[in-house]
């Protein structure tokens, strides 16, 4: 494959680089991202092109965009290293109150977007690192986010 790309509003590719040559029984994976800027139906195409006699591929894709939440908190932290399989973000709404785990399984990246927040509220966040045997680290330092009033 000599090139890869997308056609369609809000569509993208990650995890693929070209040129790419595969031998028999070899495989490669990549991700198609869907981040529409508005609600409604989005149609597009993922293209995998060749300069050789092997035919190029056009994969039709579609999805329904939904309006973005009015407020969200974009959490980011430093990666803890290779012995970590992921992270658990936690949130609470009052100082000293109990934390609520925001995901049922560890998030593999060192970031999380909390879309479950409301205008005019203040939230407190911590994160733990998770090892392969599902043991969690101590809580990281707490951070605070206050949502604007509409």
Structure description:
- This protein has 150 residues and is mainly β.
- It folds into two domains: 3-65, no CATH class; 73-146, Immunoglobulin-like (Sandwich), CATH 2.60.40.
- Helix content is 0%, strand content 43%.
- The chain contains no helices and eleven strands.
- It has strands spanning 3-7, 11-14, 31-34, 40-49, 57-65, 73-76, 84-92, 100-101, 111-114, 122-131, 143-146.
- The N and C termini lie far apart (49 Å).
- The relative contact order is 0.16.
Question: Which secondary structure elements does this structure contain, and how are they paired or packed?
Answer:
Blueprint: E1 3-7, E2 11-14, E3 31-34, E4 40-49, E5 57-65, E6 73-76, E7 84-92, E8 100-101, E9 111-114, E10 122-131, E11 143-146
Antiparallel strand pairs: 1-4, 2-3, 4-5, 6-9, 7-8, 7-10, 10-11
Radius of gyration: 20 Å
Uncertain segments: none
CATH topology of the largest domain: Immunoglobulin-like
H-E order = EEEEEEEEEEE
Count of DSSP strands? 11
Give the strand line-up of the largest sheet: 8-7-10-11
CATH class of the largest domain: Mainly Beta
**CATH architecture classification name of the largest domain:** Sandwich
Largest sheet composition: 4 strands, antiparallel
Mean of pLDDT:
89
SS element count, helices: 0
Instruction: Provide the β-strand percentage band.
Output: 35-45%
Number of domain modules? 2
Find the structural class using helix and strand composition.
Answer: mainly beta
CATH superfamily descriptor of the largest domain:
Immunoglobulins
How far is the first residue's CA from the last residue's CA?
Answer: 49 Å
Which percent bin holds the helix content?
under 10%
Shape descriptor reads flat
């Amino acid at each position: 494959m000599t090139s890869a790309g997308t056609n369609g509003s809000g569509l993208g590719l990650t995890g693929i680089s070209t040129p790419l040559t595969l031998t028999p029984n070899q495989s490669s994976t990549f991700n198609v991202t869907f981040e529409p800027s508005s609600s409604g139906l989005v149609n597009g195409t993922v293209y995998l092109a060749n300069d050789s006699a092997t035919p190029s591929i056009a994969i039709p894709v579609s999805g329904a965009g939904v309006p973005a939440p009015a407020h969200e908190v974009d959490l980011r932290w430093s990666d803890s290293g290779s012995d970590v399989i992921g992270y658990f973000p936690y949130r609470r709404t009052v100082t000293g109150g109990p934390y609520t785990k925001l995901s049922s399984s560890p998030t593999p990246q060192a970031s999380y977007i909390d879309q479950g927040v409301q205008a005019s509220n203040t939230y407190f966040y911590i994160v733990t690192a998770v090892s392969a045997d599902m043991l969690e680290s101590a809580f990281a330092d707490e951070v605070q986010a206050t949502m604007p009033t509409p």
